[in-house]
Amino acid sequence: xxxxxxxxxxxxxxxxGRRIASQLTSQRDEDITCAWMGHHIAELIAAADDDPSDxxxxxxxxxxxxxxxxxxxxxxxxxxxFEEMEPVLRTLAALDPESTSRFFSHRFDLDSHxxxxxxxxxISLSRCIDSAARVVIxxxxxxxxxxxxxxxxxxxxxxxxxxxxxxxxxxxxxxxHGDEKGNAKAHRESRKERTKSRMEQLDVLLKASAHxxxxxxxxxxELENGA
Length: 227
Known about the structure:
The protein has helices at 4-25, 32-50, 55-70, 86-95, 102-105, 121-148, 152-161, 169-177, 184-226. The chain is mainly alpha-helical and 227 residues long.
């Protein structure tokens, strides 16, 4: 007999499979192969539901769903989980090809970029601008994710129950939708403090940019006078 923990997760994966099957079969007018795959998954799930005592049948069904989930990004338009969030992911990749998670996994401490040990003023300023600009970019991406989310939160709920790895989507969804297990008031307070912090860092970016603009204006004036 299947252990309760394993049974609970397999039930969650079957539910994920039902969602995938529904998405795939909805493509019957555009992609026959995709629709066939959806019907095949639905049949496997129905067979597993009809005979709960057949662990092999259930395991085979679960394995098929997990394999399809692994290649979810290769599914056609209209059938991919989190498809609405793909513009955000593409933007992240374009901004930082080496590490798309940087914008959402690091905290930015402007104090750590202060002019220490006689560091050149322009070096210190460049660090400050880079740090503050990343926070502004993160804020823009969160706003985009919130507006583009569509049914991504529904996919996230089902995927989390099935203990699926969401990768970079995990911190994005956490920031845009919050933690369902967390306290709503605490989450609201956290967002309020984060918003205040971002406003402060935006002020830093504006001041640093203004200082740089003045330097450029001075340089231009010198060039014009020299001409």
